[in-house]
Design goal:
Blueprint: H1 8-31, H2 35-46, H3 52-59, H4 63-75, E1 79-83, E2 91-95, H5 97-142
Antiparallel strand pairs: 1-2
């Protein structure tokens, strides 16, 4: 039986939620961080000295969520804040030695997760799936931020 194409968004959300829950459990067990925290650590690892705003933009998260997560990561001794070399008013973020160890373990877990996803897609489906994700991402980026204030069309 064919799936209802109008339930596509709901199905995408279900799969994304399941994947996030599974990855959270695996990452917490292996590295002691959630998927979102591992993402933040990964950005900092790739761009030492970046700002919270940079992280929010790259991960498409709200700045307040990033601020809260950075607070937890600092409390766990994984991230440190320093005055920026470029702007003494700005704060730059760096991984601690413990943070570097943690992101290493998280990246190993991501390798396992990516392998499982790639296996599920099969060799023939991998490139096509990546293309479809890129197309979906572009389409979502072009959606309006808010629906038209005029509301739904009235009866003719």
């Amino acid at each position: 039986m064919a799936r209802d194409p109008y339930r596509l968004i709901g199905r995408i959300q279900q799969v994304a939620h399941s994947l996030r829950k599974k990855s959270d459990h695996l990452l917490i067990d292996s590295a002691g961080v959630t998927t979102a925290q591992a993402g933040i650590l990964s950005v900092i690892a790739g761009d030492p000295g970046c700002s919270q705003r940079d992280i929010a933009r790259r991960l498409r998260l709200g700045e307040s969520a990033v601020v809260a997560a950075i607070g937890r990561l600092r409390g766990a001794g994984l991230v440190e804040r320093r005055v920026s070399d470029q702007d003494p008013r700005a704060v730059a973020l760096f991984l601690t030695a413990r943070g570097r160890e943690t992101i290493g373990r998280a990246q190993e877990t991501y390798g396992v997760l990516n392998g499982l996803v790639l296996d599920a897609l099969g060799v023939g489906g991998r490139a096509r799936f990546a293309e479809l994700l890129d197309a979906l991402d572009s389409a979502v980026a072009s959606f309006p931020d808010r629906p038209d204030e005029a509301g739904p069309p009235g009866p003719d």
